[in-house]
């Protein structure tokens, strides 16, 4: 059995995939890992590249599935994984040099944990690597029976990034922890909220896991036409987490912390939805209506006056009028 299973979802990344694969293949130390390239119905050369890498490089496997999104592709990888530990890597990013060697040492130094959390560096378009501002990872074990305290610790270290995690596969399997397939944007954050209900002991590592590529063309975040899809994902996540709480998977305090965390994801998207394109705003409205329970939540929103004003408008005027007014006031491009 390999020590590590590295799961790489792949979709239309032919220009980035070779660099990603190279970063794994060149890891130092024993070949005690497998790398599962999960082609999620790519329409470019990515699928064929996966097959070629699997044929040429020991330890690599190619899996093919119909397009279902990042969550479904990761679940396909989890189902096929054989390693003791699971790592996720996005196919347009790169595994940090020496990561697996550092993890072998960390697992020996801090045994007995199911969830290890590390750092990342941002890979700028000019090739430079920079620290992400505002993250405060304190290395070492963290244990708490308070869900909100665990969430705050994870949040400070740079939340919603599963490619900075090393997870015990047996723990995931025994607790039936999987991504929700219908959450097709920001898949990491509801998965984190789910993991935290089953894990009271975290171990933070001063180890760089990933070089995260910034500024990639074609990103879901770079086009306002993708806004309805983002809100649909938030609705799906809200539904799953509400079901988890209703069936005893999260107590009242944990559910309240989840609502604040969900709202902190929701509010930046809601503000972004105040676009001049009326058709985009109309497409967002059904989802915004379903997300009304979040309108009274959000820890981060209270820290900025303009955000508090937007929150108040959404609560008093509703999303349709609020987005229309904000779109009218937004500066026009010349």
TrEMBL record:
Pfam families in alphabetical order: Glycos_transf_2 (PF00535)
Annotated GO MF terms: hexosyltransferase activity
Cited InterPro entries: Glyco_trans_2-like, Nucleotide-diphossugar_trans
Domain Glycosyltransferase 2-like intervals: 5-119
SUPFAM superfamilies found in the cross-reference section: Nucleotide-diphospho-sugar transferases
Name used for this protein in its record: Glycosyltransferase
Organism lineage: Bacteria, Bacillati, Bacillota, Clostridia, Eubacteriales
């Amino acid at each position: 059995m390999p020590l590590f299973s590295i799961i790489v979802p792949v979709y239309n990344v032919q220009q980035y995939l070779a660099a990603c694969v190279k970063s794994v293949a060149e890891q130092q130390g024993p070949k005690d890992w497998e790398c599962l390239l999960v082609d999620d119905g790519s329409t470019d050369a990515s699928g064929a590249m996966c097959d070629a890498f699997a044929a040429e490089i020991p330890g690599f496997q190619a899996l093919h599935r119909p397009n279902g999104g990042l969550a479904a592709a990761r679940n396909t990888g989890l189902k096929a994984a054989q390693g003791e530990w699971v790592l996720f890597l996005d196919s347009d990013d790169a595994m940090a040099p020496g990561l697996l060697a550092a993890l072998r040492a960390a697992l020996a130094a801090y045994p007995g944990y199911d969830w290890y959390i590390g750092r990342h560096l941002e890979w700028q378009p000019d090739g430079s690597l920079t620290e992400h501002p505002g993250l405060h990872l304190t290395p070492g074990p963290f244990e708490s029976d308070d869900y909100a305290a665990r969430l705050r610790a994870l949040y400070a270290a740079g939340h919603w990034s599963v490619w900075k995690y090393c997870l015990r596969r047996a723990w995931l399997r025994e607790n039936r922890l999987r991504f929700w397939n219908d959450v097709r944007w920001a898949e990491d954050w509801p998965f984190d909220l789910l993991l935290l209900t089953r894990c009271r002991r975290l171990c933070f590592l001063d180890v760089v896991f990933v070089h995260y590529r910034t500024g990639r063309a074609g990103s879901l975040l770079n086009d306002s036409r993708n806004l309805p899809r983002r809100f649909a994902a938030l609705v799906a996540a809200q539904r799953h987490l509400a079901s988890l709480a209703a069936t005893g998977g999260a107590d009242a305090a944990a559910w309240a912390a989840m609502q604040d965390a969900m709202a902190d994801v929701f509010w930046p998207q809601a503000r972004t939805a105040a676009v001049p394109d009326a058709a985009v705003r109309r497409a967002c409205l059904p989802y915004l209506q379903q997300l009304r329970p979040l309108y009274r939540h959000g820890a981060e929103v209270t820290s900025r006056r303009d955000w508090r004003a937007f929150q108040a408008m959404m609560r008093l005027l509703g999303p349709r009028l609020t987005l229309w007014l904000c779109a009218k006031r937004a500066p026009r491009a010349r």
